Amino acid sequence: MKKICTSCGIEKDLEDFYRHDMMKDGHLNKCKDCVKSRVKSHRAANIEKIREYDRLRGRTEERKLKNKQRHDKMIHEVEYKNRIRAAKGKYVKKYRDRTNARRRLAYALYIGKVKRPDNCEKCGEAIQHLHAHHADYSKPLEVIWLCPKCHGFIHQR
Asked: Which among 6, 24, 101, 116 is least surrounded, fewest beta carbons within 10 Å?
């Protein structure tokens, strides 16, 4: 069956039109090519509004709930757990020095040999969860305590 696109005026097969249940024949009046070009030009003309919309959409309560449900479902799957376990194993093998340094620091914190300070050593901000930054992994107990923001800046450099 054929249909004429109202945008370009070319007669095309119904497969060249998107499905739309509200239309009489069950397909849009504009062909896929015309719809794609219209969407592409609209996005280019309104890119800032679209990006802002996308940022805010991810923060809605409905989206957060759906993401949590999807995550909770996935976390219980055996296949997911096996993939995570394999990825951790590869990381540990690849970065053995980093892993050992982190483990030794965690143990030192646990037994009280090292104390976690209250303030970031770079900006001085008082924050509850400071990150330990290793400048040299061969010295696992020599760390700089940083807030997440300062830690991110150090790794960006």
From this structure: 24
At residue 102, the 3 state secondary structure works out as helix
Q: Is 60 exposed, middle or buried (0-12, 13-18, 19+ CB in 10 A)?
A: exposed
Question: What does each C-alpha distance from 136 to 70, 102, 144, 149 come to in angstroms?
Answer: 39, 11, 11, 20
Average pLDDT (16-25) is 94
Q: How many CB atoms lie within 10 A of CB 2?
A: 8
129 contact partners, CB below 8 Å, separation of at least 6: 148
| Residues in Cβ contact with 54 at an 8 Å cutoff, skipping those fewer than 6 apart | none
Contact criterion met (CB below 8 Å) for 28 and 15: no
pLDDT higher than 90, residue 72:
no
Q: Which domains does the chain have, with CATH numbers?
A: 2-57 (3.30.60), 95-156 (no CATH)
Structure tokens at 150: 């300062």
Q: What is the pLDDT of residue 30?
A: 96
- Exposed/middle/buried for 126, CB within 10 Å: 0-12, 13-18, 19+? exposed
Q: Is 37 exposed, middle or buried (0-12, 13-18, 19+ CB in 10 A)?
A: middle
